[in-house]
Structure formats: C-alpha cells, structure tokens
Amino acid sequence: MWSYNKRYPIAKIVNVSYQQVEDLLGSSSILNFFNKVAPTFEEIQNFTKPLKPAFPEAQVTTCSYKPLIGMVSMTDPRGNTSYYKYDSFRRLKSVLDWQKNVKQDYQYHYRP
C-alpha cells in the first residue's frame, strides 16, 4: 500500500490478497489514504489496525516518512518499531529501537 500522494510505500501486507484488504477497508478509504500528502505515524497505524484481527495470518509491516528526507519509522509484523533520525544534511544519523535507545549510529567524515 502506498501513500504520501502515491510516492512512498506505507504498508507491506503478506498472506492476504489485495481484494481481501479492499473488502475490509473499503476501496474509497484506501484511495483517499493513497492520496494523503503527509500521513502521520499514528494515522498509518490506525489505518492498518483492522488488518491484524481480521487476518491473523497476515504479516503487516508499516512505514512512515518525512517527505524528501527519508523513513522516520518502521513497524515490523511483530509490532516492534524502529525510528530513524537524520542530520541537517538529510543523512541518516541514527536508528533507534522502540524505547528510543540507539541501535546504530552513523558518523560522516568529509575530506576535501
């Protein structure tokens, strides 16, 4: 599933057909969400929330973005969320776990 005006993927849904998702969420609801310019993390989570109880076999991975910068969060099928932070040059600075502890830190060194 895509959003951010159809520019970024917000959900990868495995073990469920698109038709099943469309039947559950409604085609107009999906189309409206596809055309959102900047949905928040909470909006994406709330939009995909009905999938888990309706399709327990589904594996849903969701992502949220800061347009023109990069991914700011990713929630895996188990519900674990990773957060991504960027520096002022739009480079990935760090990856944080669900408790916002640093998992990975990136440092850039410029040599003229």
Question: Please, could you describe this protein's structure?
Answer:
The chain has helices at 18-25, 27-34, 41-48, 51-54, and strands spanning 2-3, 8-9, 11-14, 59-66, 70-75, 81-86, 92-96, 102-105. It is an alpha+beta fold and 112 residues long. It has a six-stranded antiparallel β-sheet with strand order 3-4-5-6-7-8, covered by helices on one side. The longest helix has 8 residues, at 18-25. The chain starts with a strand and ends in a 7-residue tail after the last strand.
> DSSP strand (E) fraction?
25-35%
Strand tally is 8
The percentage helix is: 25-40%
Query: Helical stretch count?
Result: 4
Helix/strand-derived category reads alpha+beta
Spatial sequence of strands, sheet with the most strands: 3-4-5-6-7-8
User: What's the overall geometry?
Assistant: globular
Annotation keywords:
alpha+beta, six-stranded antiparallel beta sheet, 4 helices, 112 residues, two-stranded antiparallel sheet
Could you give the topology of this structure?
Layout: E1 2-3, E2 8-9, E3 11-14, H1 18-25, H2 27-34, H3 41-48, H4 51-54, E4 59-66, E5 70-75, E6 81-86, E7 92-96, E8 102-105
Antiparallel strand pairs: 1-2, 3-4, 4-5, 5-6, 6-7, 7-8
Compact summary:
The protein is an alpha+beta fold. It is 25% helix and 33% strand.
